[in-house]
């Protein structure tokens, strides 16, 4: 897989750690110590320059406050999730919304749509408004463009993401039940026009039955879909 000198490590479920060719470290979502898939050595992922949050579900923000405060990283999130982070004592929080672009840790991150929900776990089992779920298009300084989908079903405007940003890599959830499964993800690959696909959000819980091998069976042979296991670093 050609990542243009950048590296990515899957920390299980929907959490990803990007290390740029310039030495910056960017986490996407922060479910670490509470994540049954996350290798123990990554419960503290070490120095971070930025954390991009896709939405407010526990399996994406479960270790957010601790990770932000421990690392001092800049946190990027939609307005409501950003407000929740600040209310819980986090500093260096950048609130934004879909269509906006911020420059952080040497990359340009554009927030795009996702089809999902975003309630944040509240006290006494309640749910706090987490705004709207999102994905990101991440443009690296060396030219790599990654579509980090977050949790989503396939949607037709993925074709617009392809037209506007021309990503070369898509990071897609494939587990089914709470996100799209391989059948829908194959259509996402077609709409996005990508030839390199990283699969996540599978295997954590019994209902998440999709696997990279299932997706490989449904996409053209020139689309690279590597097998994934938590802790794997590519390339």
Strand line-up of the largest beta sheet: 6-5-4-3-2-1-15
Q: What order do the SSEs take from the amino end to the carboxyl end, as H and E?
A: EEEEHHEHEEEEEEEHEHEHE
Gross CATH architecture: 4-Layer Sandwich
CATH superfamily: Ribonuclease Z/Hydroxyacylglutathione hydrolase-like
Helix share of residues? 10-25%
The first-to-last residue Cα distance is 6 Å
Mean pLDDT: 98
Shape: globular
CATH class category: Alpha Beta
Can you count the beta strands?
A: 15
In total, the number of domains comes to: 1
Amount of beta strand: 25-35%
In words, what does this structure look like?
- With 235 residues, this protein is an alpha/beta fold.
- The protein has one domain: Ribonuclease Z/Hydroxyacylglutathione hydrolase-like (Metallo-beta-lactamase, Chain A), CATH 3.60.15.10.
- It contains six helices and 15 strands.
- The strands form three sheets. The chain has a seven-stranded mixed beta sheet, with helices on one face. It has a six-stranded mixed beta sheet with strand order 7-8-11-12-13-14, covered by helices on one side.
- Strand 5, helix 3 and strand 6 form a beta-alpha-beta unit.
- The protein is globular.
- The termini are close together.
């Amino acid at each position: 897989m050609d990542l243009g000198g950048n590296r990515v490590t899957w920390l299980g479920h929907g959490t990803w750690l990007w290390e740029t060719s310039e030495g910056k470290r960017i986490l996407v979502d922060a479910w670490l110590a509470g994540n049954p898939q996350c290798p123990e050595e990554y419960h503290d992922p070490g120095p971070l320059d930025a954390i991009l949050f896709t939405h407010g579900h526990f399996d994406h923000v479960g270790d957010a406050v601790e990770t932000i405060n421990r690392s001092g990283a800049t946190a990027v999130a939609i307005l409501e999730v950003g407000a929740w982070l600040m209310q819980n004592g986090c500093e260096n929080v950048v609130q934004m919304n879909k269509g906006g672009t911020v420059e952080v840790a040497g990359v340009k991150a554009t927030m795009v749509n996702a089809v999902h929900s975003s309630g944040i776990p509240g006290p006494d089992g309640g749910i706090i408004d987490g705004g709207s779920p999102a994905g990101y298009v991440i443009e690296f300084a060396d030219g790599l463009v990654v579509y980090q989908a977050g949790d989503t079903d396939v949607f037709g405007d993925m074709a617009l993401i392809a037209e506007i940003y021309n990503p070369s890599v898509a990071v897609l959830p494939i587990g089914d039940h709470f996100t799209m499964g391989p059948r829908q993800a194959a259509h996402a690959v077609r709409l996005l026009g990508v030839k390199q696909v990283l699969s996540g959000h599978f295997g954590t819980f019994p209902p998440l039955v999709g696997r990279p091998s299932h997706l490989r069976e449904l996409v053209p042979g020139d689309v690279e879909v590597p097998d994934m296991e938590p802790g794997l670093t590519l390339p």
